[in-house]
Amino acid sequence: MKYIDEYRSEQDAQRLLTRIEDVVTQPWTLMEICGGQTHTLMRSGIDRMLPEPITLVHGPGCPVCVTPVSLIDHAIEIARRPETILASFGDMLRVPGSDCDLLSAKSGGADVRMMYSPLDAVALAQRNPDRSVVFFAVGFETTAPANAMAVRRARDLGLTNFFLLSSHVLVPPAMEAILSDEGNLVQGFLAAGHVCTVMGYEEYEPLAERFRIPITVTGFEPLDLLHGIYLTVKALEEGRFGVENQYKRVVQREGNRPARALLDEVFTVCDRAWRGFGVIPASGFGLAPDFKAFDAAIRFPLAGEPAPECAECIAGEVLRGRQKPHECPAFGTRCTPEKPLGAPMVSSEGACAAYYAYARHEL
Amino acid sequence: MTQMLLDKVFRPAFRNDLLEAQHDGARIGDLAFSTDSFVVHPLFFPGGNIGSLAVHGTLNDLAMCGAKPLALSAGFILEEGFSMESLWKIVCSMRDAVGDIPIATGDTKVVDRGKGDGVYINTSGIGVVPHGVVIDPSSAEPGDVVLVSGEIATHGIAILSVREGLEFETVLETDSAWLGPLVDAVLQTSHVRVLRDPTRGGLASTLHEIAVSSQVGIRLEEAAIPVRADVRGACEILGLDPLYVANEGKCLAIVPPEDAEHALAAMRSQPLGRDAARIGEVVADHAGSVRLKSRIGGERIVDLMSGEQLPRIC
User: Fold this and answer.
1) CB pair distance less than 8 Å for A45 and B299
2) Residue B104 contacts by C-beta under 8 Å, 6 or more apart in sequence?
């Protein structure tokens, strides 16, 4: 299949592996930012094909994983109100809140709908003028333009029953938090190609400069990842830092200008709580003042105190790259996809889910 | 969930030797007996509807026992107010799907409006297993070859695209069909140890069940598994793994190595088996689990999926 098979060729993969083996002389720890990349690595077995000195740790780029329990509780609380319909991407439905997930709330009678596009949630609001439709907007910069578009569409249609529960988060502040951490192990990043498709990579240049590390904008196919690893290791071996773009077929330095303009119009940068990280300043998108009327957090505020994170789940350590999923004592025993302690075990981009599904026989 | 109910509720409660065989149908002497209920939504989809699906489903369960069908039963649970026109369409497609196999007995119940989803259908069937044919899901042996009768995941994606209103450039039709003639052709040329139709849970779940009940390992070659380009494309977009997407009208056969070429040729000689392929082998290692060699040469587990696959965010 075009644009897929070219990036999954066994011969080319072997060639790239040989190049990586030829260039590496010492141990390096790289972090792939995005959970989609983690899953490609595990699914295609790349993590187990790489030469010994290279360690991959898995980054915070799984939007479901970094959404704090309190926000999931908030979504469940909204879903349980008789006058609301809670719309969400499928990924969110099995993520545990403090006492249940959205799917079990649904089987208990809450009106929860799975959506493929936020614009479908706007259409749902049009069809249900006597109900309030709340879209649970989770995601990094990648999904933000579509959610911004939904809010603008709702405004243009004059809808007063469409709301966004925003949980949008931004990649660069999380990278900065990881790099500033005393126990940081990460020496080079594979930046998330799809985030950079929207945002470009100008904003990574000061980070690479300040922390003197290589950052390689990397795609999602097996060969993209092998190529990204090669470029990053080569830069490390040569003592270079800076931003390189492996995903040139999609990403431009300035990103997607119309999408960025839309984000500037609808959202404003705000502080955001991350699971496992706590509050990171200026690390999320909230609705801009002109769009506050669509803010579900204002229209349906959380009753009571936000619940704490599950004490046993080490999601924070995993998402910062300080521990690997299988190093968690609960991995595969008290925490499984059937009975997860934390989001990384159920999300389709979660690192724990990837280890459990694809590699637990070797752990 | 279904597996949990089977293990924790139904099997312990109903325990008997016939049920323990854990096949698509029960084998009682020379007879095969099977039942299946259909709650598919939407009721009508490209290439079929709940009626044709209900007939093919049970006929295929019989075929997976190596049986030739004698008769079917059909039970309907109708929601009050369900349109007669739709019911007629469904019934006509059942009539067309059974051909000359009689629907010999049936039942109809009507439930209050709001307590059903239009119509639910249960079908059961009995068939005769020809002398000498023993298909047993626990009989796979190391060295055996795994064959699939055609491109996988088509049915699940066809249903999903209608149910969720996804628009692709091509209309995907279900591959729902009766596999009887294809199975007959294979049984005439080769010894077959295991036959299964990988419906819900897809190829991965069915192979996993075979690996567990035969206490063997199964190794798949990702590049050898046939998937239509448009179905692959849809799976890529939605973040679904075609190995876990439902099939109708496809079967898996596990055959001894010396029979593999004959069995494959027999499948390919049938209209439903044109794209049949050899996708893997049974091994003595990692008993009870399925492994896959990825396209780029890596290896991974193909695990049982917990719950349904949910499309990803980005």
Assistant:
1) yes
2) B71, B72, B73
* Per-residue confidence band for A277, with pLDDT thresholds at 50, 70 and 90: confident
**Cβ contacts from A onto B, under 8 A:** 100
User: Per-residue pLDDT tens for B112-169?
Assistant: 998 999 999 999 999 999 999 999 989 999 999 999 999 999 999 998 888 877 777 6
Are B160 and B296 in the same domain? yes
Written as six digits, the tokens of A361 are: 């026989």
Q: Name the token pair of B153.
A: 């995941």
* Class of CATH domain A1-363: alpha beta
- The Cα of B196 is separated from the nearest Cα of chain A by a number of Å equal to 23
Domain ranges across chain A? 1-363
Enclosing domain of residue B65: 22-128
Instruction: Judge if ipTM > 0.85.
Output: no
Are residues B217 and B82 located together in one domain of the fold? no
Query: What's the pLDDT at A305?
Result: 86
Indicate whether A46 pLDDT > 80.
yes
- Strand-pair partners of A270: A284
Type of residue found at B176:
S
Could A1 and B295 be called an inter-chain contact, meaning their C-beta atoms sit closer than 8 Å?
Answer: no
Q: How far apart are CA B154 and CA B168, in angstroms?
A: 13
Compare all CA atoms of chain B with the CA of A141 and give the residue at the minimum distance.
B314
Q: What is the CATH number of the domain that holds B91?
A: 3.30.1330.10
Which residues in chain A have Cβ-Cβ distances shorter than 8 Å to B291?
Answer: 361
